[in-house]
Each structure stands twice: as structure tokens, then as C-alpha cells.
């Protein structure tokens, strides 16, 4: 568990029933993860300082994500003053130290590490229709959390902007990976109101008014509310996304957000230009993305001899 003010824990919904009400355990005083029995570490990234844990809470499956947030300016001087330093290496004017922070600023180490191999997959338009679409349609990726947000059953107080138009409208709110304590890792998502666009693959020039609306109003809102200008934002879509209801990520350019690499992120401005040039661009083009070894979709590509 991340126990200090620089870390946070997030628990995904335990079940559909919990999820439908939009009610979360956050309201109760008991820590929702206090009784977590860890089954295994699904993923840990030392560089991004996060860990994904599969476990059980009262016999129900749960996924807990712990993520180290950026250093906070207000605790920085205390961190430097009160920490114990152990010299590791000295060379010319350079020295490296191991820093042992005071307990209240520190976090426990999670040592277990389960590395998942990742493979890059190239998906043609035909592969999408023959392999990916049947696969994602057969999966029960719950979008209930998305509908809860759109219907104001959850996170309603976190919405920073809404355009209610059923065709071009969207809701803008902080991604749950952002604790909103500092702008350095600013992270918001725009979730569209219409429910018939699964991902980048579904987009045609018909959706240009929706996309340009998201870009303009999303950037304007972030400038007004957080004083972060468009030139300081990375605005993109994931392919493959984790959730097949179109949403756009707005992250601070300063923040190396998980999934913002070239193999997964598609800049909204590129998407708009590609659709302006060719309405069927995302229906026909090959798209490349990473899949983890345990991803069922990878198996489909393997079985089809595409890997
Ligand atoms: O594009 P992709 O599907 O990979 O991204 C989904 C994004 O939604 C991620 O950045 C998640 O952190 C974010 N997210 C996921 N859930 C379940 C929630 C949620 O319940 N609330 C909010 N605000 N963001 C979420």
C-alpha cells in the first residue's frame, strides 16, 4: 500500500452491482483495501512507479492500482532536510546517494514482480473486422463506470465541463489516475455522449465535428480552469483502448503518462487531419499496438498466424 502523501491507491469496482449505483467504498470510513488478500502482482513498472495488484476482498476479485504521484513542492524541503543519505558513488563532481525518507513521506516497497512480455501487433482493417471486432464484442468489458459518469451517477462533482449535445457533446473530468494536487501530472479525459463509437477504428469524417469540438472546448476549459495552455497539453486517443467507448486523453506535456508512447497514443490533431484527408482512414489503415502476453487478443492473432 502506498501510505504516504506522495502515493495513492485506487480500487476498481468489485462487481457490476456495486458499479451500477455509482456508489464507491470511498464514502465508508473503513479502507476499502485494508482486507485485500493479494493473489499476484499483474504488472509493475519501476520507471512509472506503479503496480497493478490482483487480489480478493471478502472473496470478491479486485484489481488495485498503486501509483506514486510526483514529488510535491510543499514537502520537498522537508524531504531533503529530514532524510538519511547514504553515499553510493562519487566520481569527480558527481555523487549518487540512496535517500531514506522519513516514514510519513515514504512508501513501502512492493517487491514482488511479475513481468509480462509485450508484443507489437500490426492490425490491418481486415484483421480488425475478422479478429479484433469479434474478440472485443465477445468480451464483457464493462462500460458501466463510463455510463455512470455520463448519467451523473458517479463522479458528478468532478466534472469540469460538459457539452450535452447528443452528437458532438462530451464530459470532461479528471482521469482517476490524477489526484489534482499538482498540475505537473494533469490528466483529464473527455468521454463522448454518443454510445456508438467504440474506438479510433469506428471514426470517419462524420465524426469530425465531434472531435474538433472536444479539442477546442477541452483545451479552452483546461486553459480557463488550470491555466495550462494547449501548447502544454498532449491530447490523444489510445489504440487499443482499455474501454471501448470513445474517450480522449488530455495530459500535461510534462508528464510521461503511462500509454502515451508512439505504440499506443494517437494525437487528436493527427486523427483529425487523417480523417479530413480520407474519411475511411481508420477503417482501412494498419494500426500497430502492443499486447501483453496474457492478452486474449494476442492469442487470436497468433492462432491466425499473424504473429
Ligand atoms: O484509453 P484507455 O481506455 O486506455 O484509457 C481509459 C482511461 O480511463 C484511463 O486513463 C483510466 O485511468 C481512466 N479510468 C478508468 N476508470 C475505470 C475510470 C473511472 O472510473 N473514473 C475516471 N475518472 N477515470 C477512469
TrEMBL record:
Record's compositionally biased regions (Basic and acidic residues): 1-17
Protein's UniProt keywords contain Hydrolase: yes
Annotated GO biological process: deadenylation-dependent decapping of nuclear-transcribed mRNA; mRNA processing
Keywords assigned: Cytoplasm, Hydrolase, mRNA processing, Nucleus, Phosphoprotein
Cellular component terms per the entry's GO annotation: nucleus; P-body
Broad EC category: hydrolase
Residue positions of the active site: 247 (nucleophile)
Disordered as annotated region, ranges: 1-31
Gene3D superfamilies noted in UniProt: HIT-like, Scavenger mRNA decapping enzyme, N-terminal domain
Domain of life: Eukaryota
The keyword Nucleus is annotated on this UniProt entry: yes
Coiled coil: none
Binding site residues for substrate: 145, 155, 175, 177, 238-249
Alphabetical list of InterPro entries matching this protein: DcpS/DCS2 (IPR008594), Histidine_triad_CS (IPR019808), HIT-like_sf (IPR036265), Scavenger_mRNA_decap_enz_N (IPR011145)
Primary localization class, coarse: cytoplasm
PROSITE patterns: HIT_1
GO molecular function: 5'-(N(7)-methyl 5'-triphosphoguanosine)-[mRNA] diphosphatase activity; RNA 7-methylguanosine cap binding
Protein role: Decapping scavenger enzyme that catalyzes the cleavage of a residual cap structure following the degradation of mRNAs by the 3'->5' exosome-mediated mRNA decay pathway.
Protein name: m7GpppX diphosphatase
Source organism phylogeny: Eukaryota, Metazoa, Chordata, Craniata, Vertebrata
